[in-house]
Structure of C-type cytochrome:
Amino acid sequence: MKAVGQIFGHAAALGCALGLAACKQPPASRYTFDAGLRDMGRHVIERAGCAACHEIPGIDWPEGRTGPSLAGFDGVGPIAGYLPNTPANLARFVRNAPAAKPGSTMPAMPISSEEAHAVAAYLYGIDDD
Ligand code: HEC
């Protein structure tokens, strides 16, 4: 039975490597970022007003509900149900969602690509604390 489990385990890993949408990401944080970058990300999120539409742990106010909660973002599947969940894709999405995901209802945000990477670092880092 153990051998069978291993075979299925390998098959699942291969499926994830091929980018199958059905693959759930592991619950643990898969990326680690510099604390300074994450701090910058938090400031960008506050300045850009992301919380007007999102509940974001660590950002107390205003906890908007127009967009999905970003709590536990690290552990969810595809970004906005569409893009593979990687830091580069997340940075692209938070800066210009309609370009990253055609038809997305989240507006493009006035942040630089450097700031978008910091935002991605913050969002992936939420579960680390
Ligand atoms: C005007 C409201 C609004 C603002 C402001 C906004 N968002 Fe969004 N956001 C949305 C909506 C609506 C969605 C769902 C879009 C979709 O599914 O295509 C979304 C989706 C997302 C997602 C994907 C969530 C998931 O579960 O996959 C992330 C990440 C995200 N937003 C981050 C941000 C960040 C970071 C900012 C600030 C730079 C921001 N948003 C600003 C409305 C907003």
Remarks:
- Helices lie at 2-17, 35-48, 87-95, 97-100, 113-125.
- Confidence is low (pLDDT under 50) at residues 1-21.
